[in-house]
Structure formats: structure tokens, C-alpha cells
Amino acid sequence: MKVIVGLGNPGRKYTKTRHNVGFMAIDDLAKSWGEKLKKHTNFRAEYTEVIRDGEKLILLKPLTFMNLSGESVRAVANYYDLDSEDILVVYDDLDLPAGTVKYRKSGGHGGHNGIRSLIDQLGTKQFNRARIGIDRPPEGKAVVDYVLSKFDKREMDAIQDARENVVRACETWVHDDFDRVMNQHN
């Protein structure tokens, strides 16, 4: 079993913000697989189980707000007795140009509070990541205001391409190990 987690914040006001690009990618994946996510109280998340080519997958959007995302992921990992290598987390990254996607198997939090929460809750840095670049804020704009703002029109095409890349990478991960994902989709 594998879990694909998109990080973001719940609520309408955050729906199309930069910080919610992980949620957007999970919605794209659910749509491409003909699935709908439903609230799961015990996991404090929107959640669905999917069978793809004989592989059981879970799509997860924690509803704990970004800074507590790890609590939801830990609940799922504990319930299903998952290894951290069976988790893929999709999230926004300020250090990558808008629309760039980078995959890796481990690492630090890089200042991202959602990833910090996952590392704390899982007790490891060893989980797969899909980092979607959102670029740095313009000079004079606070990071928190920037990540909680919506993409502008010039960024939308690049972000849509990045989300499509994540969907293709997840399809690859169904059949192969994460090394193949990194080799094909980075």
C-alpha cells in the first residue's frame, strides 16, 4: 500500500493559494482516477482508497492546517502500519521557480512547516517528496502573505504543467519504485 499526501490548508479562502498546490495535485489525481475524496474523522483528512493495477493507494488531504499536517499522516501510517518509504508528499516550495517539480526520497524541512510537522510526527526524514516550485515572493512582500495568495495568470500555465507532471509521476509510482519516478520525472 502507498499513500499520496497533498499538503495545504482547508477552507474556501485557501483553495487556490500557492500553499495549497499539494491539495490541487491530489484533486487532479483523484479526478484522473475517477475518485472522490470524503472526510475521514479519525484521520482528520479528506481521504479515498484506490486500487490501481492491483496496487492499493490512499489519497490524502490533511484538514489539520499546514502546520499540523504530520498528525493526520501519522494517523494513517499507524492505522495501516506503513513504512515511511510508502509515503509521497506533494507540497509547495519557495526555492524552486514556479512550475518546476523536483522529486526526492528524503531531506530536511527547508523551512516548510508542513514538512517539519511530518518529520516530527513520523520520526524520520525518509519519505518521498514531490516539491512544486512556487518561486520567492517579490521584494517587500512577506512570505506568509505570498504563500497564502493566489497564483497570478502568468504562473497558472506553469503550475498546471507541474500538477500534470505529478499525476504522471504518481502513475509511474504505482508500477515502479521511487527511483524510477525521480529518473523519469525530475
What does this molecule look like?
- This protein has 186 residues and is of the alpha/beta class.
- It has 6 helices and 7 strands.
- The protein has helices at residues 21-32, 69-80, 113-122, 143-147, 153-175, 178-185; strands at residues 2-6, 38-40, 45-52, 55-62, 87-93, 101-104, 128-133.
- A 7-stranded mixed β-sheet has the order 2-3-4-1-5-7-6, with helices on both faces.
- Helix 1 (21-32) packs across helix 5.
Main attributes of the structure:
single chain, 186 residues, Rossmann fold, seven-stranded mixed sheet, 6 helices, 7 strands, 22% strand, tRNA-binding
Topology of this structure?
Blueprint: E1 2-6, H1 21-32, E2 38-40, E3 45-52, E4 55-62, H2 69-80, E5 87-93, E6 101-104, H3 113-122, E7 128-133, H4 143-147, H5 153-175, H6 178-185
Parallel strand pairs: 1-4, 1-5, 5-7
Antiparallel strand pairs: 2-3, 3-4, 6-7
Alpha-beta content class: alpha/beta
How much of the sequence is in beta strands?
15-25%
Task: Note the run of SSEs as H and E.
Answer: EHEEEHEEHEHHH
Number of strands: 7
What is the CATH top level name? Alpha Beta
Q: What's the rounded overall pLDDT mean? A: 96
Largest sheet: 7 strands, mixed
Distance between the termini: 23 Å
Query: In which range does the helix fraction lie?
Result: 25-40%
Write the CATH architecture name: 3-Layer(aba) Sandwich
As a whole number of angstroms, the C-alpha radius of gyration is 15 Å
Question: What is the overall silhouette?
Answer: globular
Low-pLDDT runs of 5+ residues are none
Counting DSSP H or I runs of 4 or more residues, the number of helices is 6
CATH fourth-tier homologous superfamily: Peptidyl-tRNA hydrolase
Across the major sheet, the strand order is 2-3-4-1-5-7-6
Number of domains: 1
CATH topology: Rossmann fold
